[in-house]
Amino acid sequence: EYREEILAAYVNGNFTTDRFRLDLGARLDRAEFTADMAQVLGGVLQPDQVRYTGKDTHLLPYATANIFLSDAFRVKAAASQTLGRPNPEMIATVEQTDTTERTITRGNPFIKPRKATNLDLGLEYYFNRGAGMVTLTGFYKDISDDILTITTTELIDGEEWEVSQPINGESTSYKGIEFGIVNNSFGNVAPLLDKVGASLNLVWVKGKSAYLYNGVRRDSDRLQ
After folding, report:
1. If 0-12 CB within 10 Å is exposed, 13-18 middle and 19+ buried, where does residue 107 land?
2. pLDDT tens, 47-74?
3. Mean pLDDT, the chain, whole residue set
4. Cβ proximity of 96 and 83 under 8 Å
5. What phi and psi values does residue 183 have, to the nearest 5 degrees?
6. Rounded to 5°, angle at Cα 213 from 211 and 214
7. Is the model's pLDDT at 222 over the cut of 70?
8. What is the mean pLDDT of residues 6-27?
């Protein structure tokens, strides 16, 4: 059983002129959880459950700027911090122990949420009287305490066991470029195509991750 209580509050302000808009704000995020977990040993459900509790508080700022260089051309920039909480089953799950194969599968009640720092810079060009748009955006995302599910070998009572559980990675980063083109009407080409539109989107992303386990840094290429 998993129970979670979340309290959130936010504040936002903006400054706007004919050619510029700036939005600034922050979100305060607080969560508390209680997890009651059963244990299975050698295929037998144990009578007692184990209870874990935890809580955390995060302040997540953001800023977004839009610069209108002309009616058809706009520059956008953004910086923010966001949070990704672990799924409940990553925290509260039945611990499965196979004494024959010497494997353990378990959750991790001490896992922390992911925290990402996001940077974006984009260009937008409008055409066809606002019915069409071309965009080019570069982005970078740095995730601390990223969540990875790994299998390691642990020495228990002098025997080697394979243990699978989610852990917090040291860091994960993504960077990439996105190109998009949208035209909601081809009426400027031919009147019969006034209700015909099309769009194209291309994204290139490169990512890398690393984590510390038992004092050893390990690199992992798990880009999704």
Report:
1. buried
2. 888 888 989 999 999 999 999 999 899 9
3. 89
4. no
5. -135, 110
6. 155
7. no
8. 96
Residue type, 116: A
Of 215, 114, 107, 109, which is closest to residue 171 (Cα–Cα)? 114
Q: Six-digit token pair at 211?
A: 């984590």
pTM: 0.75
**Residue owning tokens 């002129």:** 17
Listed residue (126, 112, 122) closest to 67, CA to CA? 122
- Please enumerate in sequence order all residues whose Cβ is within 8 A of that of 90, keeping only pairs 6 or more positions apart, or say none: 107, 108, 111, 147, 166
**Would you state the structure tokens that stand for residue 105, as one six-digit string?**
């599968």
